[in-house]
């Protein structure tokens, strides 16, 4: 007598086991071993292929796998009911189907937490006494000399528990957030504020920028404004090896307002954990550029939340501005019937104060964002105006010429950096002035090869010694977090020699403090950093940027990647690569799959 399916398929392990997965492929392995015990079924291989595809999509940064209704595993392959839940009800099953998407339980829980916690804040009424608002309006009139998106965003943020400011580099996000903090301080003198960024580099840069902005105006200098910026991991206080944090729903952060900069770099899981660590009445302000690359981890939270674009109602616009027209890019009010859940909760800064409206870098960035590949290529090719010649340059060369050109750039700009290693602070300052960015790590024009070329070039010129694996003067980048040493993935330092031993000098996370020396032998995995990937450059800016594109098309090349590289340049950008490669990258847009986008773009009439 044959056994039934229920008798031959083992029950899944408890949810605690599933929730502890460190890598999704481990989950896939468990499911596959589990289902191998089921009787032969014509759709078993299809289901296993579906699981493999889900895992592949997770590794690519997606949150879930869209499926057709007729391909619901529960109906097409009934044994899957032991590991797949129909909806969010059965927490003991490691996979679930929700809105025609297949999720791992872990990703589904994080996505639902983000949606729920943001929705709670969007629906929470803000109670501000007229006297408090009057004080804030009076201060806003002093801090903002004109009615523009910055002033509008500042006053809107005061009246929301959740708010987003999106904009590219140079659009005034940092200046605006400092003034928002001042308005909050005027309204709520005892408000506890915290500021964080996803990486140490981004935190350090924001901290310096905020201190500069605070010192620039007497009104701000007189106010007790926070200027210390922490990494999110440090703020939440990671503990143990399981990836958990001390601050969570049971031990919430003691803050009333949390500002998160470079929010595009925050993945789904970290964003969920951050929101969970806040009390229900804590306010959240996200800053970032939703056109940039998404986080290295799965998810594109900021991009998904900004999917519907800026939606500002006529009522809010007229009330806050007293019907005074805004300067800068035009703003068209949105009818409530056509709005989504983030109505009046997001402003996009469009006017750039760093680049002139027709500057090479600024104009190229706008063309890339618009997906205008032909216009971008034509613009680079023309190089007719003095502005383009001074700020943007394009070289279409063969390998031999590219090598010669890179060697020239390396000697001219990296040489002085390496020679300054006896003054490591000065060396790091110079390092922030120049960087070679690569789209890929491998290949002839990838990071590994360009770094080897740089080291060889500098050794041949006598700038670096060839007797060391990492010679004094070599810039390096940390590749893995080490909480004991206090160094994190993406941190950059400079190798120096002291008492016949090699150390790496890092900037202090606190600008007022001197840097730190860590023995090179104690560092976690690290590599030379003459060149770095565009992904690793997020949160950084350089006076001069050289963008090296690969000689063959690659699925990693995308509009977001090119835009991120272009906007790393403060003053000059040198693009090295072919027209077809650049065209294909600008035309390829990466959109990660999740359920947040559908929620954001849903109209109110559907809710």
Helix-strand layout with pairing:
Elements lengths: L4 H4 L6 H5 L4 H12 L8 H16 L5 E2 L6 H4 L7 E2 L9 E3 L3 E4 H19 L6 H14 L5 H9 L4 E6 L5 H15 L5 E5 L2 H16 L2 H4 L7 E3 H5 L1 E2 L4 E2 L11 E4 L7 H9 L6 E6 L12 H5 L8 H8 L24 E4 L10 H10 L3 H10 L3 H6 E4 L3 H21 L4 H8 L2 E5 L8 H14 L14 E4 L13 E7 L2 E6 L9 E4 L6 E3 L2 E3 H4 L4 E7 L10 H8 L2 E8 L2 H9 L8 H6 L6
Q: What are the salient characteristics of this protein?
A:
607 residues, alpha/beta, Rossmann fold, 3 domains, 6-stranded parallel beta sheet, 5-stranded parallel beta sheet, 25 helices, 15% strand, disordered N terminus
Q: How does this model look, in words?
A:
This protein is α/β, with parallel strands linked by helices and 607 residues long. It has three domains: 5-113, no CATH class; 126-354, Rossmann fold, CATH 3.40.50.300; 360-587, P-loop containing nucleotide triphosphate hydrolases (Rossmann fold), CATH 3.40.50.300. Helices cover 40% and strands 15% of the residues. The strands form five sheets. A six-stranded parallel sheet has the order 7-6-10-11-5-12. It has a five-stranded parallel sheet with strand order 13-22-21-14-20. Helix 13 (268-276) links the parallel strand 10 and strand 11 (283-288). Helix 19 (399-419) crosses helix 21. The N and C termini lie far apart (52 Å). The relative contact order is 0.10.
């Amino acid at each position: 007598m044959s056994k039934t399916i229920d008798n031959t398929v083992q029950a899944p392990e408890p949810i605690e086991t599933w929730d502890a997965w460190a890598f999704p492929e481990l989950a896939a392995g468990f499911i596959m071993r589990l289902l191998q015990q089921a009787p032969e079924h014509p759709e078993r291989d299809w289901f296993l292929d579906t699981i493999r595809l889900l895992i592949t999509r997770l590794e690519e940064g997606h949150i879930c796998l869209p499926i057709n209704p007729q391909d619901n595993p529960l109906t097409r392959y009934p044994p899957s009911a032991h590991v797949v839940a129909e909806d969010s009800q059965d927490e003991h099953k490691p996979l679930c189907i929700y809105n025609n998407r297949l999720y791992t339980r872990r990703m589904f829980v994080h996505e639902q937490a983000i949606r729920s916690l943001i929705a709670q804040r969007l629906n929470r009424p803000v109670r501000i006494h007229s006297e408090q608002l009057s004080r804030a309006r009076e201060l806003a009139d002093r801090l903002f000399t004109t009615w523009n998106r910055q002033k509008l965003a500042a006053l809107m943020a005061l009246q929301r528990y959740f708010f987003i400011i999106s904009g590219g580099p140079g659009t005034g996000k940092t200046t605006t957030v400092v003034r928002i903090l001042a308005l909050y301080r005027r309204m709520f003198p005892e408000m506890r504020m915290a500021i964080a960024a996803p990486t140490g580099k981004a935190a350090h840069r924001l901290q310096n920028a905020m201190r500069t902005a605070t010192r620039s105006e007497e009104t701000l200098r007189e106010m007790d404004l926070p200027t210390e910026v922490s990494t999110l991991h440090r703020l939440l206080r990671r503990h143990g090896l399981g990836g958990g944090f001390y601050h969570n729903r049971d031990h919430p952060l003691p803050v009333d307002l949390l500002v998160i900069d470079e929010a595009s770099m925050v993945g789904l899981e970290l964003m969920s954990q951050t929101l969970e660590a806040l009390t229900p009445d804590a306010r959240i302000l996200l800053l970032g550029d939703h056109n940039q690359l998404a986080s290295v981890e799965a998810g594109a939270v900021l991009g998904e939340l900004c999917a519907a674009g800026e939606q500002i109602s006529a009522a809010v616009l007229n009330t806050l501005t007293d019907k005074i027209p805004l300067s800068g890019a035009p703003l068209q009010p949105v009818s409530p019937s056509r709005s989504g859940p983030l109505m009046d909760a997001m402003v996009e800064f469009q006017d750039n104060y760093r680049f002139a409206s027709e500057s090479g870098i600024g104009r190229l960035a706008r063309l890339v964002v618009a997906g205008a590949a032909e216009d971008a290529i034509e613009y680079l090719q023309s190089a007719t105006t003095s502005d383009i010649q001074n700020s943007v340059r394009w070289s279409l060369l063969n390998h031999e010429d590219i090598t010669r050109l890179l060697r020239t750039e390396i000697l001219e700009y990296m040489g002085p950096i390496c020679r300054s290693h006896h003054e490591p602070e000065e060396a790091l300052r110079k390092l922030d002035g120049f960087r070679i960015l690569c789209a890929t790590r491998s290949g002839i024009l990838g990071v590994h090869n360009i770094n080897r070329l740089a080291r060889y070039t500098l050794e041949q010129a006598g700038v670096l010694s060839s007797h060391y694996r990492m010679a004094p003067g070599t810039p390096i980048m940390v590749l893995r977090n080490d909480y004991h040493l206090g160094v994190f993935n993406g941190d950059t330092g400079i190798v120096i020699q002291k008492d016949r031993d090699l150390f790496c000098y890092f900037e202090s996370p606190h600008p007022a403090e001197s840097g730190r020396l860590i023995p090179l032998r104690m560092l976690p995995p690290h590599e030379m950093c003459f060149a770095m990937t565009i992904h690793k450059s997020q949160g950084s800016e350089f006076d001069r940027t050289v963008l090296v594109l690969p000689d063959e098309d690659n699925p990693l090349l995308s509009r977001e990647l090119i835009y991120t590289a272009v906007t790393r340049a403060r003053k000059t950008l040198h693009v090295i690569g072919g027209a077809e490669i650049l065209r294909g990258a600008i035309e390829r847009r990466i959109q990660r799959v999740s359920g947040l986008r559908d929620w954001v773009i849903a109209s109110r009439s559907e809710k």
